[in-house]
Specification:
Elements: H1 3-10, E1 17-21, E2 24-29, E3 34-39, E4 43-50, E5 56-64, E6 67-74, E7 78-80, H2 85-88, E8 104-105, H3 106-121, H4 130-145, H5 152-165, H6 178-187, H7 204-207, H8 212-216, E9 222-224, H9 229-238, H10 243-250, E10 258-263, E11 268-276, E12 282-290, E13 295-302, H11 311-325, E14 330-333, H12 353-359
Parallel strand pairs: 9-10, 13-14
Antiparallel strand pairs: 1-2, 2-3, 4-5, 5-6, 6-7, 7-8, 10-11, 11-12, 12-13
């Protein structure tokens, strides 16, 4: 593809900034403070998609030297294929990591690298998984570096842990890599390593003190079916988050939606969510939950034809996030006639059939 064609495609993701110098493309992602670099001629095709949270994204098929790699750019993240352990370890023996995902996001790489560094620093070391985790994170980092990204903080966290326990890790030598050496040299110059880990506040004490007024404040965005002392008592008993967090999670990205919520003393309940569309029509999502079974079910979802703005993915993403905050362990799909629920899940990316086969070793 040409730089002009790629730049035109990138307008689908307005948060990023693309520049071209002759045939080399740079795509800066301000949310990451990092940039993707690739040669325009290496891009075989690009297609607009929607991320699991419904945000616009672009999926690139990038090939060079007989190889093909996926690259997904969203407004706040970059997703890529981890490097193969064969390219990271200096050995003829083939190594594999059981938990190696076909794709990983830049933000996930940062979190995993920091989490590993902090675990080792605190002495919380699982020697059964230590080697695999070091190899996994290094494959993540070099997968990012393939596209010119410079995850210096991730390298710093990896190296901090390695210097502390590397002598106890049973792995072959690392393959010499000038790119890694450059990142490591840059990481050692950082006076402090930035943190991306955020702690989730325990809202259970606040949820146990809710009152009728806490729900009334959210009207008409969220209305309770039968708001009385019995409902409030059920919320205090079963729901571990505040009404405000419940509403914000349910309607994130669809702030003009309205919800009707019912909750019963036995811990069962349901949610009806209505989403107004720009053409006057409305989309609808109905879910039900049973705290005793730790299950949330999607009972019905109706999205009018030709609504292709990522709304389906956004609703499914919000539903999963809400289920997690509620402490529920399963999301069950009972609705029919709506297409594949799996479209909203990371497991079906990349969408390009050839890229999908490559990332799953199905070629």
């Amino acid at each position: 593809m040409t730089p002009d064609e790629i730049s035109a495609a990138l307008t689908f993701v307005p948060e990023v900034r693309a520049t071209a110098l002759q045939n080399r493309m740079t795509v800066h992602v301000p949310a990451l403070g990092d940039s993707v670099h690739f040669v325009a001629d290496d891009v075989r095709r690009v297609r607009p998609i929607y991320a699991p949270d419904g945000a616009p994204a672009l999926e690139f098929a990038v090939g060079a030297g007989g190889e093909l790699w996926p690259l997904i750019i969203t407004g706040t993240d970059v997703v890529f294929q981890p490097a193969s352990p064969d390219t990271v370890l200096d050995t003829r023996m083939r190594y594999a990591v059981a938990e190696m995902p076909p794709l990983v996001a830049y933000t996930e790489m940062l979190r995993e690298a920091e989490a590993q560094g902090r675990r080792v620093q605190a002495g919380h070391i699982n020697y059964d998984t230590l080697a695999g985790t070091f190899l996994l994170v290094r494959c993540f980092i070099l997968g990012a570096a393939r596209f010119g990204l410079r995850p210096v903080a991730a390298v710093g966290w990896w190296d901090r842990a390695w210097r502390q326990v590397g002598d106890s890790v049973f792995l072959p030598p690392w393959r010499p890599d000038p790119l890694w050496d450059g990142l490591l040299a840059e990481a050692t110059q950082l006076p402090d390593l930035p943190s991306t880990l955020t702690s989730v506040r325990d809202e259970r004490p606040d949820a146990a003190r809710v009152d009728v007024v806490d729900f009334q404040r959210l009207e008409p965005g969220m209305s309770v079916v039968g708001l009385d002392d019995e409902f409030v008592a059920a919320w205090r008993r079963w729901v571990p988050i505040t009404p405000a967090t419940f509403h914000a999670t349910l309607t994130r990205g669809v702030s003009d939606a309205t919800a009707d919520v019912a909750l019963y003393p036995d811990g069962g309940g349901n949610i009806d969510l209505w989403i107004p569309l720009s053409d006057g029509r409305r989309a609808f999502l109905q879910t039900s939950f049973v705290f005793a079974d730790r299950d949330l079910a999607i009972d019905e979802i109706r999205i009018p034809d030709r609504v292709g703005n990522g709304l389906f993915q956004r609703l499914m993403f919000n539903t999963e996030q809400l289920a997690a905050l509620l402490g529920l362990q399963r999301v069950t799909l009972r609705a029919t006639g709506i297409g594949a629920y799996a479209l909203a899940r990371v497991g079906v990316y990349p969408r390009d059939p050839e890229l999908y086969r490559v990332t799953r070793d199905l070629t």
